[in-house]
Amino acid sequence: MALLASALMSHTAHRPGLRSHIGPNGDNLSWHLSSSEKSKRRCDLIRVRSRAWSSEVGQEHLPFETPRRDWFSHEFIFGAATSAYQIEGDWNDDGKGPSTWDHFCHNYPEMIANRSNGDVAVNSYHKEDVKMLKDMGMDAYRFSISWPRILPKGTLEGDKNYEGIKYYKNLINLLKENDYTHFAKVCFEHFGNKVKHWFTFNEPHIFYSFAYGTGEHAPGRCSPERKCATPSGDSLSEPYRVGHNIFLAHAEVVDLYKKYYKAGINWIKSYPKGLKDLLMIIKKRYGNPPIYITENGTADVDNGNLSMTDALDDSKRLDYLQRHISVIKDLGADVRGHFTWSLLDNFEWASGYTARFGLIYVDRNKGFKRHMKKSAKWFKQFNSTPWKVINDKHGDTVVLNPAFGQQ
């Protein structure tokens, strides 16, 4: 089994009206925020995911105003996101058991670009990437917890791996020491007393369509006429059965998911107006619920010919992020946070290491050394400007809220 239990660490205060839910999905478990008022029968938080897969970014010819931190309230969260298998490495050390992705990559390497895997990934298990997050001035970190690192045999009947528990406790404590408190999806027994907000399923459409439809993702099931690792499935029915079970486990918000999730165009060019339109649709259709954009980013294709110099000068990614952040302004939608995917260049599932999504460049040939890209340096400058300090027309500094410096 492989648990992708994402966790968000932020320094925001606990917001009332949110409570935890567990979604008991075997291979891909995470949680989703929902309303504390059952009568509303709707999500208290809508999760918006946007990831562009293209070396070209559209709309760059259109003018836009470079976003500033003072456009957003102090409560607005800017963060970055990662997931365990894609960054940690140490796939069989310190008591960790095998995950579905370990099995998939080891037994069907031809399904992954360049036959790569996450055995070492970007070695985040032995790195303190929290420092880079802090250097960029990010408010929050959305990370994930590996099920087999906590439960090597996959069930509660097996032994717990206390080395794995220790690793995540140390990570959470390090985040807290750096002024990050938890907005986390973690395991109840050892982390539950630290968790205030929970999600249910992370990217369910990816899980059931790619894992049981096209067979591109673990466990790699598809119909016999398709080419995949395990061509003994049924691409026409299994994704729907898996999706149905996901919705049932999602219990209180199953109706919302049936209405909200629709098939669409996959991996199109950058279109910031699409994010703006989506936010306005959510605002009007669902009564303006709180929204956290938990993944938004674009990749640079690296087939071994992308130099570090070119990768660090990620102007297209910076343009993409600036344009998307800029459309959030003045919508009237209750957008409370934006998480960039990803904090680090990582193992990008079937694409292996050929797609670099990170704000941070990882040199896998030189000890996994981290380097800030142009986009990371921009976030550092962006987040270092107090949102409540502006310059008036005479050039004098005006502090709109003196209490800001005490936050």
TrEMBL record:
Keywords: Chloroplast, Glycosidase, Hydrolase, Plastid, Transit peptide. The keyword Plastid applies. GO terms for cellular component: chloroplast. GO terms for biological process: carbohydrate metabolic process. It comes from the Eukaryota. One of its GO terms (molecular function) is beta-glucosidase activity. It is found in: Plastid, Chloroplast. InterPro entries: GH, Glyco_hydro_1. PANTHER family: 4-HYDROXY-7-METHOXY-3-OXO-3,4-DIHYDRO-2H-1,4-BENZOXAZIN-2-YL GLUCOSIDE BETA-D-GLUCOSIDASE 1, CHLOROPLASTIC, GLYCOSYL HYDROLASE. Belongs to the glycosyl hydrolase 1 family. This is Uncharacterized protein. It comes from Panicum miliaceum (Proso millet).
